[in-house]
Design a protein that fits this description.
Mean pLDDT: 97
Strand content: 15-25%
Oligomer: single chain
CATH architecture of the largest domain: 3-Layer(aba) Sandwich
Radius of gyration: 23 Å
CATH class of the largest domain: Alpha Beta
Strand order of the largest sheet: 12-13-14-11-10-15-16
Helix content: 40-55%
CATH topology of the largest domain: Aldehyde Dehydrogenase, Chain A, domain 1
Distance between the termini: 58 Å
Number of helices: 15
Largest sheet: 7 strands, mixed
Structural class: alpha/beta
Bound molecules: ligand TXE
Length: 453
């Protein structure tokens, strides 16, 4: 039964931008029923035609890019320039999976007495549960491979940020993807999300969100032995060695944690710096952080907007309150959930260095040598991303091999590209999104033996 209206807010102004009827269990079941009914038709669409439909969707995302970027900027508080880049990636992701549809092959395996063939079969109806930090982007990372493999979908955006998914749903239909193949359901996680996790007709949950809720998703999925892919929290390290190009590393470091106001699972929120260059690096970092332009997300020059909500701002502040900040930047006053860029000197045992803050707050931690750096970087329950800054190529690769992390970049902050696998180890989750690897999470291998005897 439909529940009360869901109020959607612009976090930069605190104004209501939409009121949406919130779905409940009944609407979720209806969406699963529509997706179930559409499945046989969708899986039977010829691969080249499925590819063409995904390509048309990618083109529609490009053509409507400015509108989508504005929706995302207004609903999440993202600077408009960054929102445009994110929408650009969404189109690239759909282009990539359009190209992947007919390149995800089975095999023939040498056996005695016959022929053995593997097929890549779709799973059925998949439930996609998405957070509020990159609503459209993360939706596309899951939708692209799910649709390419021939699954049908129920997509649940975060209740704070449903607007871009609702617009995307219209574009999906406009692209000619049949009705029922993608169904967006807006409602509370503990109702709609929970129902998807437990629903007997949902074959898999693709989840991005907190480790805590991810744990519940995994438990809930056990009842029906659902497949799950979990992209969870992070506490990634940005490791700066004394032999790094310090100017370059310091100029990049703020954007590794203040992008999206730090509400990024890949945020390199622990900055590990070799002791011999610590003071110099700190000076450079403060200088670079001072230059981050915080303000109105509609302004083309803005680099950082507000946090998502008042409650989230309180949570972020609670991490900083009992520490001594090395630097606190400027943030607008008045309406909006603003929080300044903050640098804190810490030990890896401090709460601020152990838990995901999910705000523009970086903890600086000194280290002695390479061994010490690897030890500290790995001393966390998480393992999603990270950066290594050094001009020594052998060291870069040695440390990259030693770090417990699903994604790493050397002399860069970059974590995601449409064609390369993305995902975590340890309590950051499992399964890979993006690239050809994501297709494995949205298909099942069927083995068929034909006796030729
Ligand atoms: O995440 P939730 P929240 C982290 C980050 C942040 C914290 C809380 O530290 O501060 O999580 O954010 C749906 N069954 N990350 O509360 O609750 C929910 O509706 C099924 C890291 O927003 O995990 C939303 O669609 N689904 C992360 C999605 O789960 C449920 C991104 C994520 O919400 C559910 C976001 C339930 N019982 C937050 N309860 C990252 N790593 O990128 C909620 N949901």
């Amino acid at each position: 039964m439909g529940q009360m209206a869901l109020i959607v807010t612009n976090p930069a102004t605190e104004e209501t931008i939409a009121e949406i009827e919130s779905a409940g269990v009944e609407e979720t079941d209806a969406a699963v029923a529509r997706a179930t009914a559409a499945f046989n038709g969708w899986r039977a669409v010829a691969p080249a035609d499925r590819a063409r439909l995904l390509r048309r969707l990618a083109t529609l995302v490009e053509e409507n890019g400015e509108e989508l970027a504005r929706i995302e900027s207004q609903n999440v508080g993202k600077p408009i320039a960054g929102a445009r880049a994110e929408v650009g990636m969404v189109a690239q992701v759909f282009h990539f999976y359009a190209g992947a549809v007919d390149k995800h092959y089975g095999q023939t395996i040498p056996v005695a007495g016959g022929v053995d063939i593997t097929f890549r079969e779709p799973l059925g109806v998949v439930g996609l549960i998405v957070p509020w930090n990159f609503p459209l982007n993360i939706s596309s990372w899951k939708l692209g491979p799910a649709l390419a493999c021939g699954n049908t979908v129920v997509l649940k955006p975060a209740e704070l940020t449903p607007l871009s998914a609702l617009r995307l749903e219209q574009l999906i239909l406009e692209a000619g993807i049949p009705e029922g193949v993608v169904n967006v359901v807006v409602g509370p996680g503990r109702v709609v999300g929970q129902r998807l996790v437990e629903h007997p007709d949902v074959a898999k949950i693709g989840f991005t969100g907190s480790t805590e809720i991810g744990r519940g998703v995994m438990q809930g999925a056990a009842g029906t032995i659902k497949r799950v892919t979990l992209e969870l929290g992070g506490k990634s390290a940005n490791v700066v060695f004394a032999d790094a190009d310090l100017e370059k590393a310091a100029a990049a470091a703020p954007y590794a944690v203040f992008d999206n106001a730090g509400q990024d699972c890949c945020a390199r929120s622990r900055i590990l710096v070799q002791k011999s260059v610590y003071d110099r690096f700190l000076d450079l970092l403060i200088e670079a952080t001072r230059r981050v332009r915080v303000g109105d997300p509609r302004d083309e020059a803005t680099e950082m907007g507000p946090l998502i909500s008042a409650g989230h701002r309180e949570k972020v502040a609670s991490y900083v309150n009992d520490t001594v900040s090395a630097f606190t930047g400027e943030a607008p006053e008045g309406a909006g959930f603003w929080y300044p860029c903050t640098l804190v000197e810490a030990s890896n045992d401090d709460r601020i260095a152990r838990e995901e803050v999910f705000g523009p707050v970086a903890a600086l931690i000194p280290f002695d040598d390479e061994e010490d750096a690897v030890r500290i970087a790995n001393d966390t329950p998480y393992g999603l991303s990270g950066s290594i800054w050094t001009e020594n190529g052998a060291r870069a690769l040695r440390v990259a091999r030693a770090l417990e992390s699903g994604v790493l970049s050397i002399n860069s902050n970059s974590s995601v590209r449409p064609s390369t696998p993305f995902g975590g180890v340890k309590q950051s989750g499992f399964g890979r999104e993006l690239g050809m690897h994501a297709l494995d999470g949205y298909s099942e291998i069927k083995n068929v033996y034909l006796a030729t005897g």
